[in-house]
Each structure stands twice: as C-alpha cells, then as structure tokens.
Amino acid sequence: xxxxxxxxxxxxxxxxxxxxxxxxxxxxxxxxxxxxxxxxxxxxxxxxxxxxxxxxxxxxxxxxxxxxxxxxxxxxxxxxxxxxxxxxxxxxxxxxxxxxxxxxxxxxxxxxxxxxxxxxxxxxxxxxxxxxxxxxxxxxxxxxxxxxxxxxxxxxxxx
Amino acid sequence: xxxxxxxxxxxxxxxxxxxxxxxxxxxxxxxxxxxxxxxxxxxxxxxxxxxxxxxxxxxxxxxxxxxxxxxxxxxxxxxxxxxxxxxxxxxxxxxxxxxxxxxxxxxxxxxxxxxxxxxxxxxxxxxxxxxxxxxxxxxxxxxxxxxxxxxxxx
Lengths: 159, 154
What we know:
The complex is a heterodimer.
Chain A: E1 14-21, H1 24-34, H2 38-41, H3 43-47, H4 58-82, E2 93-101, E3 110-122, E4 128-138, E5 144-155
Antiparallel strand pairs in A: 1-3, 2-5, 3-4, 4-5
Chain B: E1 14-21, H1 24-34, H2 43-47, H3 58-72, E2 84-90, E3 99-111, E4 118-128, E5 134-145
Antiparallel strand pairs in B: 1-3, 2-5, 3-4, 4-5
C-alpha cells in the first residue's frame, strides 16, 4: 500500500485498485446521460458497428477507475484516523496525459485496475507536490482496455 | 440529417456549441457514483476543503463535454471514434449554476495512411463557463470517414 502524503511516493511503486464488473444496465445508463452513440446504447446498432457489440463509453471506464482509486484512499484515511494519525488534506486532479482506450468493455466484463507511480515533482507551492500515476485497466482475459496518466496534487508532510 | 464526413470539417475551423447548466444535484449524483470525495459530495464539507465549495468531478466535466460533442456532431457524423486523448487539463473548477459550452478547434486534418477512406483530425476542445473562462482543455485525435465516391455534396 502506498501512503497518502507526497513523500510516501516513489517512482515505480505499484498498487492494485480493485476490479469492477460492468453491467449492461450501468453501461446504458452512462451512455444515455453522457455518450449516446449507438454502440453504447443499442445492441442491434452496436452489432453492426466497428465494435461488433454493445460496449461501455470510454469515459465510463475511466470514471469507474476513479471510483476505485477514491474508495481505496478513503479506506486508508479511515485506517489512519483509527490509529490516531492525521490524514493529509485531499488534493485536486490537474489533468490527464496519454489516455488510451485499447479494447472495448462489454457487458459482464470484469476490469481490474492498477496504478504505478510514474513521476514526482515539487510545485511552486511548498505544501503540494504533483504526482503522475499511470492507471491501467485489464479485462478478465488479461487484455488491456484503457490506460492513462493522472496528474494529481498530493499534500506534503509538514516538517 | 445528412451524415457529416471528413470533408465537412475544414482545417483551421473554430466552432462553438452547447449550453449546459450544471446543477448541484447532478454534481453530487456523479460524485456519489464515480468520485466520492467531499468536495464533490457536500457543500459544507467542500467549503472546508482545498476546493472552497462544491465542485464537479473533472471526469464529470469530461462527460458533460462528451455529451455536448455528441449532440453537436458525433451523432450525425461518420465518426470512427478516437483511440485516445493526448491530454486533459482541468484549469478551473466547475461549480453549481455554471453554464458550460464547448469551443472546438481543428488543429490539423489529413488522410489516414493505412486507411485511405478515413480522415484523421487533431482537435482541441475547450470547455467554457459563462464568464468565457476555459475550465477544461482536451486535445487528441479524431477519426472520421471520408465522403464515399459518387455521393453528392450536401
């Protein structure tokens, strides 16, 4: 497990974020709200598309990875509180680099996400550091479905 | 509506579209489902945080931009999708009551070397708020089929 303060991170550290099973219902629900292209919404139209069947919006896939990342950190914060340890203030995401959707996510697919610390950089503000984390999603057949580098601020441990 | 093809998106084009009011309820709804951090969930807790008040998840902003892109052109274009995105920058917070729109800039346009029936664009999408601040910038390639031979121009 990687700690939550900026100083707890080292390039090359890895962590598992957990897995999520994408149901048909949630794929359709996300598509209706945000990405109503036929291959995310309509089984028959999807069968004739380049994907050959219904698949999740790429924005849905990455949003689910965020949920798993946040849940893991929340569990860590709870554990710290239980131990009487002060958890760092939450930092904001600054952006994403090199996002790839390499294979479709179909109803029933179970996607396991992992994280690797890719870069660490101090910022002009002494209380925040910028961390680049490569997040990768792999399906039940071991095939990568998405990958991106999340650039996020992490609080620096007070000296 | 006639399908839009590669030829219908001129190089150097800059267009604006969309008008989307963002409510506190939907910020919280998205936050609960995908990004349950206090500044996406609860106004009081958000005020105590670095965000200084309730803000939309950056992924929610991206999803709202996708919806405006769908309504403006994806749904009636010969889009072949996108293999990915080069960069997303969350530049300013999106707050309840903001009205969002999109400015799309075509940076380059060429024919695919491996698939001569497909055009490849490099596009930049900026999400604007009601003050014309750029709150998010997304840049990446987009594949759109070329107009089939013999099909009449619209």
